Each structure stands twice: as C-alpha cells, then as structure tokens.
C-alpha cells in the first residue's frame, strides 16, 4: 500500500491498467438494455448507448459484425447484446464491443400476439358471420392513418384515379410508438360518432413487427369490432397478418390495394349506367311492340273485320297514333343514349390517365404549376408528376422557343 | 347509417327497381313511360355527378369542446 501511493501514474498508464483489468474481468458478457443515440456510421460501424432506468453504457459494433446482422436496431428498442468490455483510451470511456445484437422479447411479443389472437378468436371476433359487407358505391371514405406517410398518399392517389367523385375524410393518427393504438382506436370511434363515412380504411406502410405493433393491440381490435361502419385493414406489404386484419371486415394487403378494393372505377360505373339505360329502353320498346301486336291482331280479327268501316277507321287511327308514339319514344331514347355517350366521350378526354398515357407529365415548382418557360431558370428545382408517382428534378438549362416572343 | 339522403347507391337501387318494373307485365303503358323518363333522368344525373366531381379531401378532428371540425387537407 505504501509503495502504491508513492507510484505516480501517467494518465495513459492508468488507463491501460484499467483497460487490462476490465478486459480480463469481462471477456465475454451478455447485457440487455434500451438503445439510444444510435448512429450508423459511414464506415459501417454502429455506435449507440445501451441504457436502463438508472445507468448507461457506450456500445460499438464494428462493420465486420454489423454486415452479418439482418436486424435493424433503432432508438428505443430493447435489445440483448453479446460482446466484451474494453476502454476507449483517448476518451477514458469504457464500452462494450458488441459482436451480436438481438431484439429482446421478440419471443415474448410473439407469445402475446398468439395469446390475444386465441382469446379474440374464442370470443368470436373473427367470425365471418359478423363481418359487414362493404358498400358497393361509397361516397365518403374515412382514412385512419398517418397524414405524412407514403400510405396516405398511395390511398388518396388510387382512390382519386379510380373515381374522383369519392370524398375522402382523413383522420390523422400516429401509427407507431406510444399512444398509437389508442389514437387509432379513438379515430375509428370518432368516424362512427361523426357518421358520414360509408367505409373506414385504417392502416400504414410496411415495417418491422415492432412498427406494426399498434395494429396488434386489443384496443384497436375492439374499436374495429364495435364499428358500425365497415372497416378495411391495410397494414404493410408483409405476408403476416395483424390482429386488426383478422377483426376487420375486409383485409387488404397494402394501402394501395385497399383503395382498389373499395372504389370501383368511374369507367366501370358509367358502363353500368349505360347498361341500365339500354335495358330500360329495351323493355319499354318490347312492351310497346307487344301491345301493338295485340292491337293489330284484334284489328284483323274476323269479328272486328265484319264491323262497319267507321269502327275500322277508328282502329286505323289508333294504330297510327300508337305507331307515332312508338317512334317518338324511340327517338327520345336514342337522343338520350346519345347524350350519355357524349358525356362519356367528354369524360374520357378529360381522363388524367389518358394524359399520362401519352407520356406527358405535370410540371410544378414549389407546388405551383409551371405554364411558361419564363417561370424557370437553370438550377430551378421542380417536381414532375406522373400517373403513379412523382420525381424531383433540377433544370439543366433553359431555352425559349423562337416564335414565342414574335407572335403576330 | 348515413345522414345523406341521396347517394349513388340509392340511385342505383332505384334504377334497378325501375328496370324490374319496366320488365313486369302488369305495369301499365303510361306508368312505363313515366318510369322510363324517371330512370333516364337518374342515369343522366349520375353521369353528370360522376363527370363533374373532384376528389375533396377533408381532415376530421374532434375539438376539445366535443364539436366535429373538418378542415381542407391539400396533400394529393
């Protein structure tokens, strides 16, 4: 002891000594905690802090190990790390060098999922008998999802493209993280209280099992089950089902698919209207012909033919009148069919689908449509919108058409 | 379920009913003509509605005082 106190270490010597002690004491450890300050460095190394309620530990996982890890850690996740302790001398920090990282409690999540699924199944919440049919022609569709994700954009654009007459009522909610399940559930209740939507779609884009977890919560399942308005679930593009998928009246594999499932195309609806108009016309025509035929048979009937010319004349007149009426009806019918066809034709020319089909794109800058080259200069950032998406672009050069300024 | 009185769905329902009546033997001629005119009128209205409508996107919120609030959502 006496000699030890007399020894004067340099910082480096002391640090090295501590490092040696730590490395010897903890050559291989397994530690569990929550990830925070996660950084994915360009070199391929991962840096993060493991923490629990009262302590924290620096951690690094080198490229050699991160490359073989399919799991993608994120802040807030509970993980189990295997590794060894060491000291990072330049900072005097002790840290764990992680060789393997696993999400913690994945087994526990799975078990909770199976248990809830079993319980709700036993209760009959998944029964086909309690599934409501979707309205064939929804006028208003409520969309319960995040207002910022790709999912909401996909749904809106699919619905709009198929039938612009459908109105969308967006109920913005968090779709992951604390409080998400409660928000989704109360949004579904809200739609029912508001009672204007014919149909509710709730969902989000794909993600890890943790990301999708809100849709596995009982509170969401209960809200879907008690909704008087039919609910379509549209969670992720995974093959996996969520609890919400089982309870929903219809499950769509993705948000876009949900849009396609619930909205008929305008073309389809116009075709149906045309068909109805034709059928109606055909029936009227048929009835008219049948009655005329009966009238003629009566006229040529021997009993009638023996009657005087006066009656015969009256019958002739009736026949003429009926013939004229028939022609009038037919003409009116044709005129109306023609008007419908014209409307259809006009619609088709305005169909944005056709516009995009020709290879055209909508050009805008800061959300304002670009109508003239004078709105652009080299380097301007613009957005090109196509049928199925959009692209950001930078103007490489600008040239004005020769004749634009000298129009006569 | 819905507060709306006239929906596309109710129009189609009425149209199908008209077609059924037109096909029925017992419908008098005069009645047929009326039904036909009504049917064509509904078809024309539906076509008009379909062609003129533009998707409206509203955001639904419940205010703290319990009143519904719908705001324009311009994110297409």
Structure summary:
Chain A has 408 residues and is of the alpha/beta class. Chain A is built from 13 helices and 14 strands.
Report on this structure:
- The complex is a heterodimer of chains A (about 400) and B (about 80).
- In chain A, the strands form three sheets. Chain A has a five-stranded mixed β-barrel with strand order 1-2-3-5-4. A five-stranded parallel sheet of chain A has the order 7-6-8-9-10, with helices on both faces. Chain A has a four-stranded antiparallel sheet with strand order 12-11-13-14, with no helix packed on it.
- Chain A is built from 13 helices and 14 strands.
- Chain A starts with a helix and ends in a 14-residue tail after the last strand.
- Residues about 405-408 of chain A have low confidence and may be disordered.
- Chain A is α/β, with parallel strands linked by helices.
- In chain A, α5 (about 150-160) runs parallel beside α9 (about 255-260), α6 runs parallel beside α7 (about 220-225) and α10 (about 265-300) runs antiparallel to α12.
- Chain B is of the alpha+beta class.
- In chain B, about 55% of the residues lie in helices and about 15% in strands.
- Chain B contains two helices and two strands; from the N terminus they run ααββ.
- Chain B has helices spanning about 10-25, 30-50; strands spanning about 55-60, 70.
- In chain B, strands 1-2 form a two-stranded antiparallel sheet.
- In chain B, α1 (about 10-25) runs antiparallel to α2.
- Chain B is elongated and about 60 Å long.
- The two termini of chain B are about 30 Å apart.
- The chains are: A alpha/beta (about 400), B alpha+beta (about 80).
- The interface between A and B is large, with 58 and 45 residues.
């Amino acid at each position: 002891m006496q000699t030890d106190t007399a020894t004067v270490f340099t910082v480096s010597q002391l640090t090295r000594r501590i490092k040696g002690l730590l490395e010897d004491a903890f050559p291989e450890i397994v530690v569990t905690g929550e990830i925070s300050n996660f950084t994915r460095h360009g070199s391929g190394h991962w840096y993060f802090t493991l923490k629990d309620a009262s302590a924290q530990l620096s951690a690094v996982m080198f490229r050699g190990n991160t490359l073989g890890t399919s799991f993608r850690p994120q802040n807030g996740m509970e993980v189990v790390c295997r590794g060894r302790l060491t000291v990072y001398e330049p900072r005097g920090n002790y840290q764990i060098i992680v060789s393997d990282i696993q999400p913690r409690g994945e087994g526990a999540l799975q078990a909770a999922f199976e248990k809830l699924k079993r319980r709700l199944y036993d209760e009959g919440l998944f029964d086909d008998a309690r599934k409501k049919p979707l309205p064939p022609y929804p006028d208003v569709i409520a969309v319960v999802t995040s207002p910022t994700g790709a999912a909401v954009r996909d749904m809106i654009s699919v619905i709009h493209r198929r039938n612009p007459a459908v109105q969308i009522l967006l109920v913005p909610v968090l779709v992951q993280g604390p409080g998400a399940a409660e928000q989704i559930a109360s949004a579904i209740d809200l739609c029912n209280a508001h009672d204007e939507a014919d149909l509710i779609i709730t969902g989000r884009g794909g993600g890890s099992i943790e990301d999708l977890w809100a849709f596995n919560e009982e509170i969401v399942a209960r809200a879907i089950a008690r909704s008087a308005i039919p609910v379509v679930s549209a969670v992720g593009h995974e093959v996996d089902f969520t609890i919400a998928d089982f309870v929903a009246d219809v499950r769509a594999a993705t948000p876009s698919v949900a849009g396609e499932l619930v909205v008929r195309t305008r073309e389809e609806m116009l075709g149906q209207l045309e068909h109805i108009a034709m059928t109606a016309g055909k029936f009227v025509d048929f009835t008219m012909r049948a009655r005329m035929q009966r009238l003629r048979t009566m006229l040529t009937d021997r009993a009638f033919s023996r009657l005087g010319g006066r009656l015969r004349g009256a019958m002739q007149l009736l026949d003429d009148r009926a013939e004229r009426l028939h022609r009038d009806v037919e003409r009116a019918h044709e005129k109306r069919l023609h008007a419908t066809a014209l409307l259809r034709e006009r619609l088709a020319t305005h169909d944005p689908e056709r516009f995009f089909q020709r290879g055209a794109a909508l050009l805008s800058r800061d959300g304002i449509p670009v109508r003239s080259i004078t709105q652009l200069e080299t380097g301007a950032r613009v957005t090109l919108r196509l049928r199925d998406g959009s692209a950001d672009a930078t103007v490489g050069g600008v040239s004005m058409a020769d004749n634009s300024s000298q129009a006569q | 379920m819905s507060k709306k009185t006239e929906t596309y769905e109710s129009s189609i329902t009425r149209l199908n009913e008209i077609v059924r009546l037109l096909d029925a033997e017992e419908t008098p001629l005069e009645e047929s003509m009326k039904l036909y005119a009504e049917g064509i009128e509904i078809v024309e209205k539906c076509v008009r509605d379909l062609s003129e409508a533009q998707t409206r996107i509203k955001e639904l919120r419940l205010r703290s005082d319990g009143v519904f609030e719908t705001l324009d959502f311009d994110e297409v």
